[in-house]
């Protein structure tokens, strides 16, 4: 059969990224391009649009564990007006299953025309399609820092208000689930990050430009080490 889609993994500093990239290639049965260590999420996404050869391509994060039953041959192209499809992912720390960390099918042209948003892909032109199927697991619990960062960024953005149009009640339910995380590795760091993310959103509401720091890897790492560095090393 003819494969209609390219595939790309975006990784930055995830400890398991090499293994998960190999797994993604094995499950999909096609070569998966890799962009690693690109500074700035918006820049990384835009570069992804330049390394693919097809208009529509699969995009996975460096902590995404694709399910072995995911069938690339069953993936339908995006409909007219849809810029991105998102499959759900399991969160190993709190049991949530939603688009966070999920696999995406995305248009190269949409990435090239991407606007400005804190949740970067929310600024794509056109419509985002969220589907019910589960494509895998998001392994955010690879280190104390990665667990903290996941909780911090997601709960800060949920507290700020979803840029995908999620209602306040649903956002509150997801924040509550993050704040009740009880399983998986380094769960205490995810809990701390979630609470600090909520607090940050309340403080940054007075200075909206502060939210852009959620996409700055150096700022995030410095914030983590200032509050939890000694504990992470000791653990």
Characterise this structure.
This protein is an alpha/beta fold and 235 residues long. The protein is built from seven helices and eight strands, in the order βαβαβββββαβαααα. It has helices at 17-28, 41-51, 108-112, 144-160, 168-178, 187-204, 217-234, and strands at 6-11, 33-36, 56-61, 64-66, 82-90, 97-98, 104-107, 127-138. Strands 1, 2, 3, 4, 5, 6, 7 and 8 form an eight-stranded mixed beta sheet that branches. Strand 1, helix 1 and strand 2 (33-36) form a beta-alpha-beta unit. Helix 4 packs antiparallel against helix 5 (168-178). The longest helix has 18 residues, at 187-204. The protein starts with 5 loop residues before the first strand and ends with a helix. The mean pLDDT is 92.
Radius of gyration over all CA atoms, rounded: 17 Å
The rough form would be described as: globular
Strand content: 15-25%
The first-to-last residue Cα distance is 50 Å
Average residue-wise pLDDT: 92
Q: What's the SSE pattern? A: EHEHEEEEEHEHHHH
Low-confidence stretches: none
Helix-and-strand structural type: alpha/beta
Query: Tally the helices: what do you get?
Result: 7
Main sheet attributes: strand count, strand direction, barrel closure: 8 strands, mixed
Please estimate the helix content. Answer: 25-40%
Number of DSSP E strands? 8
